[in-house]
Design brief:
globular; Dna Ligase, domain 1; six-stranded antiparallel beta sheet; D-amino Acid Aminotransferase, Chain A, domain 1; five-stranded parallel beta sheet
Amino acid sequence: MTTAPRRIVVTGMGANPGFDLARSLQRRGLHVIATDAHPLAPGLLLPGVTARTTPRADDPRYGEAMMRLCRETAADAIMVGIENDLAPLLDLEHALAAAGVRLWLPEPSAVETCLDKAAFDAALRAHRIPTPRTYLPEQLDTVPDDGRPLVVKPRRGHGAQNVFFCHTREQARVLCELVPEPLIQERVRGTEFTADCVVDRTSRASAVLRHRDLVKAGLAAVATTFHDQEVAERVEQTLAAVGAQGLCCVQGFITDDGPQRVLITELNVRVAGGFALSEAAGADLVGQTVNGLFGHPIDHSRLAYRPGVFLTKYVETLATGHRATHPAWKDTSR
């Protein structure tokens, strides 16, 4: 008797993380139910997926629509491809579990800490983990006005949207009027890195380190895996400080100068946009995450990887046509 493949909902199929996650799941023989709020999201056109549209994550109808989608598609689990879906899916966690749909995320407090850059900064400082100096708009007068570069970004932003660089306190003050829910950080110089991480239910973590050699619009267009004990330790400290669990990614810098060599800037409780490099380097990132998702042990030996493996990404035209013929154009959110 042949067992039907597990059916996994992947959200955020209009962006790189969800798109590549869906393809990785398919390579492992799993069936992907691809979802996005926009019916022309490229991931909805992946061959072999069940494509469905949903309301936006901030739409009051989102929860009801996701529950209905899971029932209608006989979904076994949900994996998140974009930050927007985290909070509303956490609100559905008990209802999903009662329906037999698995969701593997950290505690709500950990998710909130990662979504709020000010809260994340506070968590790192409480655990003495080096991170760029961060200020809220009401603290602007305490920002050093010595010409050092600054970054103004949304407190709850993602994907490098509404991120601006400046050099003076007054420039930062103007940018704070333009950026939604802004905060100000010192701009760090050095080599940017991402760590693709899996944290099991006993809090044991494995991390794959990769340099972000060329970054475009927040996405690593060129990256290379590397080993560095100090970076690995900082990543593990960050995961523990926040209480991360499941598949996630940590970002930071190896600095050119300054009192601290390694600074942490971000932790995302979702798959990273360049995780395919970690898999190419030998780490069974998605396979072990699926094991954990369905309550099986994670084999951390399968998350070892080779340094010096590279990845390059580029933008291509996936499809053109008339939207009336698009298979996912029909709004199934009802």
